[in-house]
Amino acid sequence: MKEGRFHITWAGAHRVAYEETDSTNVRAAALSEEGAPHGTVVTAEMQSAGKGRRGRGWISPKGENLYFSILLRPEILPENAPMLTLVMALSVAEAIRRYTGEEACIKWPNDIVVNRKKVCGILTEMKVADGRAVHVITGVGVNLNMKEIPEEICQTAASLNIEGKESSEKEKLLEAILACYEKNYASFLKTGDLSELREEYEKILVNKGKDVRVLEPGNAYEARALGINEKGELLVEKTDGTKARIFAGEVSVRGIYDYV
Ligand code: BTN
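Above: inputs. Below: predicted complex with biotin.
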């Protein structure tokens, strides 16, 4: 891990750390109800009920990995909240690149991959009232130092150390992520979308220019991934030459033969 100080002002200025908890996303939501401030960061050494996307779990053994959630109170419409997941994905990938030297890439929309295997997952959840986002919680799990990758995910998942790093310094990586996030979040707030971040995101988008299998509920098709638009939707060209925009929600994208 490279040495260095990180410029952080609001992200994680208020921190809550658990040795063990159910899920840092659940804790952040509870803290939000108690009035915790924008930027509150919740960490845990272990999660007994870590949450993944699409109702799946997130395997969260003790001490080995980084699990954290950030509580945001942005003045945005609910339909714009999914973009914050891509803002975090870019931030995590940048932080891993800068401070570990690993060539972290993004698998659209928000998986971080190293050597084509997933090392980080991101889950954004939101509370809405009167058509506005009351809070947005973005939870991040980075496989840092996982001694053994559980069998059910070993085809697609990896840990940063297993991919070649000797040591993992959780706190420094967290600070690196938060510093990158502050920078990228400011840009998101300025434009209200990803127009300033799109180029950087696409530079490390592992799907760009690749043939992918688009899995919509009840419909799967092959297409070529072209990049993203300013809303973070994946732009694809279908085999008949028509173009489509894919919104992350219910759709997932795989490689033709593999996870990436
Ligand atoms: C995915 O399925 O790829 C998303 C996984 C998100 C896991 C993180 S770990 C910290 C935070 N707390 C949770 O319960 N989930 C997220």
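The longest strand covers residues 117-129.
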